[in-house]
Amino acid sequence: MEYLVTKRSHPTADEIYSSLVKEMPTLSRTTVYNTLNILIGANIVRVVTIEEHEARYDADITDHGHFKCERCGTIYDFRIDTDAIRTEELKNFKINEKDVYYRGICAKCLGNIE
What we know:
Layout: H1 2-6, H2 13-20, H3 29-41, E1 46-48, E2 56-58, E3 64-69, E4 75-79, E5 101-104
Parallel strand pairs: 3-5
Antiparallel strand pairs: 1-2, 3-4
């Protein structure tokens, strides 16, 4: 959990494992996956799946959107007002999760940021 809170890069489980195994040589990938599943089950971490076969993890469980740069792969958070999204057609539904994902080219890759 500490890793996810301090590394806001939306890492994959393999990235988490690769970073933490240096400090904890006995760590296994299974332990990383099991711990992530516990944190998800406790609703303190959420899975970000912008790409079909790429699960990333986010310790920020507030309502916000994600933008993934198709060039550098960086995922950016952006604030949204999920209550402003019109969902009248779902008034008799129970919504468990709200996700907004954008893909494109980030300002840095476009050369708009130095």
